[in-house]
Batch of 4 targets.
Target 1
Amino acid sequence: MHSSDIPQIMTLSERIYGEGSGWSAKQLESHLAVFPEGQLVAVRPTEDGDRVVGMAASLIILWDDYELTDSWRDFTAAGMFTNHDPERGRTLYGAEVMTDPTERGQGIGSALYRARQRLVERLGLRRIRAGSRLRGYHRVAATMTASEYVDDVIAGLRRDPTLSFQLRRGFTVIGVVGGYLRNDPESLGYAAVIDWEPEIPPVLPSETP
C-alpha cells in the first residue's frame, strides 16, 4: 500500500461498511507509518490508472499481551495499529481483508490471503490470527448460539460468507467470542477466532501457543 492509495481505500471501505463506518485517513496513515509491509492492496489497471479492488491490513502483536475474548478495538488500538510490536511479537494479526463487491469471485481475496501468508513466512512469524466476523449469524440467531452456528459452518452444514472462505484458506477456529465488533447488525458482535500456521514453524523464543 502507498499513501496515494488511501483515498481509494477510504471510498471502498465506505461502500462496504456504510458512510461514516469505513477506514479514516488518519488510521490508514498510521498503518503505513508503523508497519508498511503489512498493508497490502490489490489493484486493477484501467485507462485512468490503477483502481484499488482489495485491501488487507495487519499488524504484529505478542499474543501473550491479549485475551482470546478481547475486541477488535483492543487488538488494533482502535484501528490505529499503534500497538504494533515487531520486537516481541510473533503473531500477525489480521485486522482487515476487504474486496470490491463488484469484483468478488475473481480471486482477489485469495491473492491477499496468500500474500499475507508469504509475509508471515518471510518474517519468520509463528502464525496469523484474526477475528472472523460471523456475517451470516443474524439470520439464525433466534434459534442457535454463535458457537452452534460456527460448528455448523466447520462441519459444512451451512455457509458463512467470511468464515467459510477462511476455512478453505487453511485457517482453523480456536474459539468463538462475543463483543468483538460494536454495533454490527450482521454478526451481532460475534466472531470466530481463527488461526493459521506455516507448515514449517520457525524457531522462536517462547510464546503461548
Target 2
Amino acid sequence: MRVLAIDASLRNCGVAIVDGGNGKSRALFFGTIHNASSLKSSACLVAIRDQLTQLIREHEPDCCALESVIYVQSYKTAILLGAARGAAILAAAENGLPVFEYAPKRIKQATVGTGGAKKNQVAFMMRALLGLTEMPDPDSADALAIALTHLRAQESVKIGLPGMEEI
C-alpha cells in the first residue's frame, strides 16, 4: 500500500509518500510545500492543491492520510488550517483517493511511543524508522509519521483490531 500523507498548513504543508509493501515501510518522497507570506491565502490553497495533484500523478498512492483538526487558540488560525485541509482533501478526492484522518496524539503514540512527543523527537524517529539519510524538517517528519500511523492502522484492521476512520 502506498500512502500520501499530509500535515496540512497554509504556509508550510508537510507531505510524504510512503510505501508499505513487502512488510517494510520506505519513504518514496517527503518535503514541504512552502507558500510565501506575500501570497494571498487563496493562491496558497491553489498551490497546495496543484502540488498535491502533481505528487498523486507521479507516485500513484492508494490513499491519503491527514492529521485531524487540532485545537488552536485563534479562530483565524483555525479557519486557515481548515482551508488548507480542504485543499488537501479536495486534491485527494478529485484523484479518487480515500481519505483517512488521525488525531495528533495517536500519530505520536504510534510512531514515537508517547502522545506528548516533541517535533524533534518525531523527526528523529522518522529518520530511524525509515532509514533516512537526512533528518526531515518538522513538517515533513509529521507527514511521514501520519503515513506510518496509517500503515500500522491498516495492519491492525487486517488482524481484526479497530483501526482507521475514513472521512
Target 3
Amino acid sequence: MIVIIDYGVGNILNVKNGFERIGLKPILTDVPTVILQADLAILPGVGAFNAAMHQLKSRGLDKVIIQRANSSKPIVGICLGMQLLFESSLEHGKTKGLDLLKGTIVPFKTHLKVPHMGWNNLFHQKSDLVNQGLPKDAFVYFVHSYYLEGFDEADLVSYTEYDVKVPAIVRKRNVVGMQFHPEKSGEVGQQLLKNLKELVQ
C-alpha cells in the first residue's frame, strides 16, 4: 500500500495521478495508523515551509512522520516535502523542520531568475536504487525559490546546477527527497516513481 500524506498543503492530486499513470493506486490519508502501516509513504508539498510545518504540527503528523522514518519504512518527500525533511528553513524567518536529515533550506542568491522554474539536467553523484534506469541526459521539472545547503555529502544522490549546485535527490537509508516534481517530469519522472516502488522491496 502506498499512501500520500494529506495535510492540506500541496500538489496531492498531481502526485496521485503520477502514480496512477504507472499502474499504482495510492491512498490519500491523514490517518496516523494508515501512514505508519503503509509500505511507502509520500510527503508532497508546495508553498511556504513555515505554513507547511504548521499544518503538520497542528495535525500531529510531524511526530507520525518522524516515527515512520525511525521505523525504517520508506518515506519520500517531494518538492517542499523534501525540504521539510531537513533541520530548518530560512524562508520567512527561521523555521525548524522535521530534522530527519542534515541541512538548511536557504534562498537562491543568484543573477538567474528566481523562482528556479523549468527543466534541468540531473547529474548523478552516485548510483542508487532511486536513480537507476535514468538516461544520462535526464531532465526533470523544478519549481522552487529555496534550495538545500549544508547537507551531508553522503546523502546526495543526484543534483542539478542553477548557478550553484542544487541537491535534487537525497537519500539516507529509508528517507528520500526529490526537490523537483517527478509527476510533471515525463518519462524520466515515471521511471523515478517506479524506482520508489522498489524501495518497498
Target 4
Amino acid sequence: MSVPDVIAIDGPSGAGKGTVARAVAQALDCRHIDTGAMYRAVAWRTLQQGRALDDEPAVAAVASGADFDLDGTRVAIDGHDVSRAIRTPEMDVAAAAVARLPRVRAALVARQRSLAVAGSVVMEGRDIGTTVFPEAPVKIYLDASPEERAARRAQDPAHRLSPGTGVAEVARALDARDRLDRTRRASPLEQAPDAVRIDTTGLPVDAVVRRVMKVVGERRQGARGS
C-alpha cells in the first residue's frame, strides 16, 4: 500500500497550526483538514442531542456516524454549519473532554485516515504525526512560548474567556488544556521523533510558512531520491 501524501502539522493551542496549515495548503494547492474542528463538532453535536460529554458510547456514536463537511474554514456536521459555534472557550473545554475518550479518538482517526485517500492533504492536529499518519513523509511540530501562545489567544475574540479577559487568565486556561492533551491515555500530544520542530515565538506567519515549505521540499526530494 502506498504511503499517503500527508503533511502532518501538530502542536499545542496557540502555536499557529491553523493559520500556517491553511497557508501551506494554499501554497501547495491541496486540501487542508483541521482535525481539531472535528472533535469540536462532535462535542457540539453531542451537547445538541442532549447527551453528556462523558457518555463514551453516545459520543463515539456521534463521531462514527456524523456527516462532516470540512470545506476551507467552513465546518458542518449533519447539515449544521458550526464554523462559528465551535470556536468558543466553552467548546475548547468540550473538545478536550471528548478527545480523551478512546472510542471517540478511534472513530475519528479512522475517518481522518480516509480523508487522505483522495489526494495530497495538509492535516493539522495534536496526534497526526504520531497516531493518525505515523508514516507521513512530512511531519512538522509547531510550538511557541507559553507567554506568546497566551497573548495570541487573548487577542482572538473566538477564544477569549470574556470581553475583559487578561493574558494571565488565558494562560491558565491554556495550561489546563495542555495538561489534558499531554496526559490523556489515547494519543497524547507529543512530538513525533522524526518531526521537525519549529518555534514560532516572535515569528511572522509568512516566515513560519517559508520554513515549513523548505522542510516540505527537502523531505519530498529525499523521498524521491530514496
